Amino acid sequence: MNALSAFTPPETAQGHIPVMLPEVLEYLHPADGERILDCTFGGGGYSSAILKSADCNVWGIDRDPDAIARGQALSRHFPAANGTSRLHMLQGSFGNMQALASAAGISTFDGIVLDLGVSSFQLDEADRGFSFRMEGPLDMRMEKSGPSAADIVNKAPEAELADIFHFYGEERHARRLARAVVNARSEMPFETTTQLANLVRSVIPKDRSGIDSATRAFQGLRIAVNDELGEIERGLEQALDMLAPGGRLVVVSFHSLEDRIAKRMVQHATGKDKSFSRYDPRAAGTPAPEADFVALTHKARRPTDTECSYNPRARSARLRAVMKRASTPASVKKG
Fold this sequence. Notes:
Helix content is 39%, strand content 13%. It is α/β, with parallel strands linked by helices. The chain has a 7-stranded mixed β-sheet with strand order 3-2-1-4-5-7-6, sandwiched between helices. The termini are far apart.
């Protein structure tokens, strides 16, 4: 713990600072010869640190073509003994990781890491339209294809907009905001981030915490545009299937919706699912068989105060991790 608390920010390209990197490496624990899957490559912070910590191979997944280009450039710095690279890029969504890995000839990994949410690069590029702090097109598409945030804001029915703001953005004033958006777009379509942010601020009261009033609305739209929660559900299910015996899965989330899914994953994988009452007949009788996975974190880990001081984006981060048992419990072996 002292080593973690004394950790200083890593030097990374273009100012990208990977969140909770010491803790990720602690639970991922890369070793020589292992195969690691970085499901959300982004700026390559995790992948670079993993490759430097052990003589292993890393496969990086990202749906953003800009991230793939960054990874291909980075791969030159990690040559393999056979003259290729220890970093391999796979373009696509992590909700499709099993098919992507299979196409690359791999079925299992010794470690898998997911850093959920939007990347720093996407937030910092005004023309990607993720941030309400900069003027840019109202886009938010991670893959640069499909319906944009502007399409949803300008075309979705009022009830659908209210649901997006409420369920994905956790906005208390969702109905009021949706009504205001519909009224405003009848006079002028929404085209820019500033245009939408200003409307949200005119409708939503200032938050006592100091958080910008547009934060939750933009979060909700981003999640809707990219089907982020569906991706997480599909990705975590596949990640558990793809872990080799002794393999570790590490998940870093940034808001309650993401962490809730990660928490359920840990409970289900480790046999501690509370989905039915203790009075249910299924909860009685013989003890449940030993689960295939063990929890490495019994509750979510939080970033240190030191990290939050130099990387404010880490403040809301939560980390959860599980490990697949080295051998399948006898009670659940097949055949």
